[in-house]
Design a protein that fits this description.
The protein has helices at 15-25, 55-63, 83-91, 102-112, 126-136, 141-154, 170-185, and strands at 4-8, 29-31, 35-36, 51-52, 67-74, 77-82, 95-100, 116-122, 163-166. By secondary structure, it is of the alpha/beta class. The strands form two sheets. It has a five-stranded parallel sheet, with helices on both faces. The chain has a four-stranded mixed sheet with strand order 4-3-6-5, with helices on both faces.
């Protein structure tokens, strides 16, 4: 059976760090590159970190039915998962790993059902989340404020995931996700 692993979390929870760890330690996994209309951050590269599309290109793909799931997170800020990306990974004989926002994670779990293990990464607190976002130094104060407000709402989705991992100790969280994934794909 083809399987998928779904990681979701509020921004700044350490989700991307944990996904990278899973990819480095579990050879059966292959990252699914999402599409987005936002601008690249830092050293992000097209077709490596994301498929960066214009809002019009994204809407065209929606019209074509090209997505497993997609969401307009903010006005003209879309994120989505291409069906072709999932098929490509399964054809390689790999397990798909997703790094998606919370609503995307819920949608993917509904779509894939028992083929999916959905993991919600929870920060120890909203205060710690804010500290991490500030220390990341990639967003201005207003963007951080918006992200914190959104995070509080996103936390309410945690119970719609198969499991919750609290990332208060990175090494412990790494071991926990590794065990969860290995058990699921075994």
């Amino acid at each position: 059976m083809n399987k998928v692993i779904i990681f979701s979390a509020p921004s700044g929870s350490g989700k991307t760090t944990l996904v990278k760890h899973a990819l480095e330690t579990i050879s059966e996994l292959q990252f699914s590159i999402s599409c987005t209309t936002r601008q690249p951050r830092g050293s992000e590269v097209h077709a490596v970190d994301y498929h960066f599309l214009s809002p019009d290109e994204f809407r065209q793909k929606i019209a074509e039915g090209a997505f497993v799931e997609y969401e307009e997170v903010y006005t003209d800020k879309y994120y989505g998962t291409l069906k072709s990306e999932v098929e490509k990974i399964w054809n390689m004989g790999k397990v798909v790993i997703f790094d998606v926002d919370v609503k995307g994670g819920v949608s993917l779990k509904k779509y894939f059902g028992e083929q999916a293990l959905s993991i919600f990464i929870k920060p120890p607190s909203i205060e710690e989340l804010e500290r991490r976002l500030i220390s990341r130094d990639t967003d201005d104060a207003e963007t951080i404020r918006i992200r914190i407000e959104k995070s509080e709402e996103e936390m309410s989705y945690a119970d719609q995931f198969d499991t919750i991992v609290i990332n208060d100790d990175l090494e412990k969280a790494k071991k926990e996700i590794e065990l969860l994934i290995r058990n699921f794909i075994a």
